[in-house]
Every structure is written in structure tokens, then in C-alpha cells.
Amino acid sequence: MITRMLKLAVVSLLGLFAAINTSYSQSVLEVAAEVDRLLDQQTQPSSNNLCNDEIYLRRLFLDITGKTPSLDDILVFNLETHPEKRTKVAEILLQDPDYGANWGRFWRDVIYYRRSNDQILLGASVAENYFKDTLNTNTPWDQFATDLITALGDIREDGSTALIAAQQGRPEETVSEISRIFLGIQIQCAQCHDHPTDRWKQEQFHELAAFFPRVAVRPQMDPRTFLVYAVDRIRFQPRTNNNRFMGTLEHRMPNFEDPATPGPQVTPKFFINDQQLPLGTTDMDRRRMLAQWITSPDNPWFAKAAVNRMWSELVGEGFHEPVDDMGPDREAIAPAAFDYLAAKFTESGYDMKWLIATIVSTQHYQLESQDRRSYDQLPFQANTVQPLRSDQLMDAILNTLRFPELPERAELGIRRQFAETFGYDPNNIREEVAGTIPQALMLMNAEVIHRQITARSGTMLGNLLSEVSNNRQALQELYLKTLSRRPNRKELATNLQYIQQIDNRGEAFEDIFWALINTSEFKTRN
After folding, report:
1. Cβ neighbours for 68, distance < 8 A, ≥ 6 positions apart
2. Could you give the CA distance from residue 199 to residue 192 in angstroms, rounded to a whole number?
3. Which residues contact 332 (CB under 8 A, 6 or more apart)?
4. What is the pLDDT of residues 409-453, one digit of tens each?
5. How far apart are CA 499 and CA 467, in angstroms?
6. Three-class SS of residue 449?
7. pLDDT at residue 273 greater than cutoff 80
8. Hey, which end of the chain has fewer CB within 10 Å, N or C?
9. Cα separations in angstroms, 205 against 15, 193, 208, 250
């Protein structure tokens, strides 16, 4: 261990974990152990080892806060001997404001990547902040869903309008997203005909859409924005469902034989429990009742949709893949473990922090990572390497390079550039997310990054080299700051030889630093 690092660790928070008194630990550890037991019964115990502390800590920081751990974080965690330190540090990170920021951006992407109009992005930053605050205060997941389903207001003032606004208030698109996100069921496949592979009928889809005909999204010009609003009275009732700036009182089935002739009016009815409301029910009564039926503990798909998506994000493979294509006609991987964890999530009061703490406390989360398995291999035998989302990658670069604090407008600009280059739809199966030439070129050539990789005074690398004269120690610290781990023997020997060959310490370390930033390891979560 580097002497300088040990001095930093001496003044660390050793003993912190033993002093923490959280309400989660016992429940989390008990449920995590039972999930592991059920998984081993159903999928065969993994022969893969648990990852070491350095890999676990980087994985956990990225998964919970979206950022990489600091040098001090790594040293403190390695020295801590508390037997439950992995669960304890997860609970600490779940109280960090960066938890809400990271997952707020995740849910922003879940909703906005499937938007029907780019103009709706006017409300994206407000929605992101709304999600951040909702997650940090640990609003129960059923309340979160209810707020999005029943939202009204200006998209630049109320982030809960994001889901409806992203689909421009169109009933068919809105309920398709609600079903996909909060039930994990793609009922939109039944919009024009009975579902080809599931039991859902075309009529059931339009009965679901009948909860939303009175909702509309109207543009406003001064200031430029959009309003999500609803009507319960209309002087002139259109004969079709197309009056999306005003809404319609009732939803109609499409008439495919004669599109010019309106189809019959449809009664609002929820396809999971077959509960219905009469024609003429007010907008808010429709949407509140739909939210109540969706989030009811009697509806298992609500909890399962959240559990499946979070397990897939954290472990790398869901109990169902894709994560939003479940249903009674689809067979889950390890159904007993899935049902058990979903039931416990319901019992927790739909506590999202509890769910994350439980998943990261399982041994299956803590297994060493491997590339995504082929379909003929056993599931859940390893954690899976995940590409960093654009915001996570940007934060990793900012943290590693120790950028000076950026003005808000400049940071937003860089984030937008990263999103355009590295962003991907988090609803997609991860093997569909592939690296691109523009991504490689941006990291290799971006001027804003190269200015901070130099060994000049004031940069992270410049400060490191001026404070640590021993090349071996400097390399170890550089690896810890970049990849959150120490170099192995081969890496250390190769780099030391390179430094000797170049015969210019600053230039050699700049090359090594640049190479580390451009490794696939830096751009992924292992």
C-alpha cells in the first residue's frame, strides 16, 4: 500500500459502519439471502467468485450514485472489517443526493427516449429534477406512478407531466407507455388487432385507452411551453379521437373497414382485473381509479415490473428480457425468486431504496462480471458488464480528471454532447447497445478532455506527479483514480518499462492516462 494513501486513510471514517443504525439492514440481508437460495435452486449455483472490494465499490458507486469512488473511498472501504460493510455502504450511498440525480436521469431517459415529439424536451430538465427529488425523498413507487398517471400542468413547471407530455396526450400512446413502464406489459401490440403472442385483445387495448380521451397537450407561445390539461365539457364533440389539442369526451374504437366512419364508444376498463367505469366518468376519476388499480397490491405486475427492471439494471439480466415485455403468457427465469422478491417489495410499501439495497446485497449481484451470456448458457452465473450511460461516463471523466467547476450552462452543453454521442435507450436489451466510431473519436480527440489529461501544474495528473516522485506509487494511484483498482503485475511492469523508454516522465504519464481513459474498462461498469 502506498504510504501517502495510508496517511489519508488514517483520518478516514473507520468504524463508521458499526455506528450506523439503519432500519434496512436486517430485512435487506434476510431477503437477499433468500433470493440467493431460490436462485441457486432454480438456476444452479454459480461457480463464479464474488468480486473483490475494489470492483464491488466502483460497481456500487456507479449503480447508485452514477459516479466513481474517490481515492479515499476506496482506501477506507478496503481497510474496513465490518462483516456487513457492503450492505452498509450501499445504505449510505442511497442517502446521498447523487442517488436521486443518477436515477432521475435514468427515468428521464426511460420516458423521453420513446417520445413522440422533440418539442416536448422543453420539459426534460424539469422532469429530471422532479424525478431526482422524488427519489431522494424515497416517495413510494406507487405514489410516483400515480403522480405521473394523474398529472396536469405546465411541462416547464411540473415534472410529473413528463410521461403524458412525451406522448403528446394521445390516449393510445400514453396507455402503451403506462402499461410498458409500470406493468412490464406491451399491450400496444393489440392496438390494431388481437395480440399475436399474448392473450390481450384489441378491445382490451382500447378499453385501456378509454381512461385518457379527455387529456390533451396544448402548446403555449408566451412563454413557449406545453400544458397537460383535461376537459369534462365540450360544446362540439368530434366524431373521432383526433382532437388532441382539446381532448374528446369518450374514446372510440377505430373502424378499419371504413376509417371515415367513427367506431363505437368504449367504456374504460382495466385489462388486469376487468374492473370498469361508466361512460361519462370525469377525467380525474378515470385516471385516479386507473392508478389505484395499477398500483394495487392485488395487481402483481406493478411490483414485478419495478423489480424486473431494477434487477436487470443492477445484475445485467432481468427475470424477463426485454424488461418491459412480461405478462401471464411469458415464462420468467427463476420464477420463485422473482415472485418472492416482488412480494417483498410490495410488503415494503413499494420502497425503492429498500429494493436497491436488497438487490446489491445478494451474492448474485456481487459475483465477478462476465460478458453477456449466450442463450445456451445458464442465467445468473455472473454479474454482467454494462455500458455506462452518457451521464455516468461524463461524471466518471469529470471525477477522474478533477475538472474545475463548470458553469451550469457549460456543463449542460457538454452533457448534451455526451448524450448525443454515448446515449442509448435504457429500455433496450443491452446487447443491442454497441460502441461506435464517433464515441471512440470523441474520447480520443475531444479538446475539453485533452486539456485536463496533461501533466501541467494544476491538473490532477500534474498534482499527482509533483507529490509522488516514485513511478511505481504514482502508477498505482493513477490506476486507483481512473479505474478504481490497482494495476496488476503485468500492467505495472509494462507501464514502468514504457516510462523508462520515453525518458520524459510527464509525457509518459500523459500517454498512460490517455490510454486508461480510452479503455473499455473505463467506459463500462464491471
Report:
1. 58, 61, 62, 395, 396, 399, 400, 484
2. 14
3. 319, 320, 326, 338
4. 888 888 899 999 999 999 988 888 888 899 999 888 888 788 889
5. 17
6. helix
7. yes
8. N
9. 56, 9, 5, 14
Neighbours of 437 (CB within 10 A): 7
Look at residue 234 and tell me whether its pLDDT is greater than 90: no
**With the C-alpha atoms ordered 256, 258, 261, 263, is the resulting torsion angle positive or negative?**
negative
Residue 57 — very low, low, confident or very high, per pLDDT cuts 50/70/90?
Answer: very high
Cross-strand pairs, 524 = 387
Residues 6+ apart with CB under 8 A from 469: none
Cα dihedral 109/114/117/123 (nearest 10): -30
Strand order through the sheet with 215-221: 153-154, 224-230, 215-221
Specify whether the CB–CB gap between 167 and 175 falls below 8 A: no
DSSP 8-state secondary structure symbol assigned to residue 232? S
Name the 3-class secondary structure at 75.
helix
Q: 190-210: per-residue pLDDT in tens? A: 778 777 787 889 999 999 999
Cα dihedral sign, 300-305-306-309:
positive
Per-position b or e across 131-168, b if 16+ CB within 10 A of its CB: bbebbbebbebbebbbbbbbbbebbbebbbbbbbbbbb
Q: Determine the Cα–Cα distance for residues 218 and 498; give it in Å rounded to an integer.
A: 62
- Those residues whose C-beta lies under 8 Å from the C-beta of residue 376, and which sit 6 or more positions away, are none
- Among the listed residues 161, 410, 412, the one whose alpha carbon sits nearest the alpha carbon of residue 287: 161
- Amino acid identity of 243? N
Please indicate, yes or no, whether the overall pTM of this predicted structure exceeds 0.90: yes
**Residue with cell string 367505469:** 277
Residues in contact with 317: Cβ distance below 8 Å, sequence separation at least 6, in sequence order = 333, 372, 373, 379, 380, 384
Dihedral sign, Cα of residue 163, residue 132, residue 410, residue 408: positive
Q: Is 57 exposed, middle or buried (0-12, 13-18, 19+ CB in 10 A)?
A: buried
